[in-house]
Write a structure and sequence with these properties.
Largest sheet: 7 strands, antiparallel
Mean pLDDT: 90
Radius of gyration: 20 Å
Distance between the termini: 82 Å
Low-confidence stretches: none
Helix content: 25-40%
Structural class: alpha+beta
Shape: elongated
Strand content: 35-45%
Strand order of the largest sheet: 1-7-6-5-4-3-2
Number of strands: 7
Order of helices and strands: HEHHEEEEEEH
Length: 168
């Protein structure tokens, strides 16, 4: 009887572990937002990395502590919408002057994020791309649409702030 029971336990455990592995491997979603700012890369970058003044224009992703430097950690208060705010810690993995700011965080295996601000020159200014990839078993039960809407608001606020600080 105990041999039969242990075979059942091993079989169920194998099925459970396989299911968890498949959920992790297939768990991927992303959000994306773009805006063209009528200013140079240099001016847009200056506003984007000036976290001391974020509270004047950025009501979506407000840094509470830390620095935007490679290897640094930043604690943010993320306002997904008007009545929900979350504290999120990210690690700054890459800073390429006037081009890319890349941060990562989350709970490994459950839900992680890879957040990128990319700046690209255009004929009429700078395209700002916010792109975030999510991985983990949690993405199967999570809807990223409110985050994408928040990043659209963030991009518009960045554009408005650059125009306010550096009028053409």
């Amino acid at each position: 009887m105990s041999v039969l029971l242990s075979k059942w336990v091993l079989g169920i455990s194998a099925i459970l572990l396989t299911t968890i592995a498949l959920l992790y491997i297939t768990g991927s979603k992303s959000v994306h937002s773009e805006v063209v700012v009528p200013a140079s890369l240099k001016l847009v970058w200056a506003v984007l990395i000036d976290t001391e003044r974020y509270k004047k224009w950025n009501s979506v992703l407000v840094p509470l502590e830390g620095e935007l430097r490679e290897g640094g950690e930043v604690l943010y208060e993320f306002h997904q919408d008007s009545d929900k705010a979350y504290k999120i810690t990210s690690k700054v993995v890459q800073v390429s002057e006037e081009t890319l700011l890349n941060q990562r965080g989350g709970m490994q295996g459950i839900l992680t994020f890879d957040h990128r601000y990319q700046l690209e020159p255009t004929h009429n200014g700078t395209k700002v791309i916010i792109h975030e990839e999510y991985r983990g078993i949690g993405v199967h039960v999570w809807d990223p649409a409110p985050v994408e809407a928040a990043y659209h608001r963030l991009n518009q606020a960045l554009k408005d702030r650059v125009i306010e600080v550096y009028p053409q």
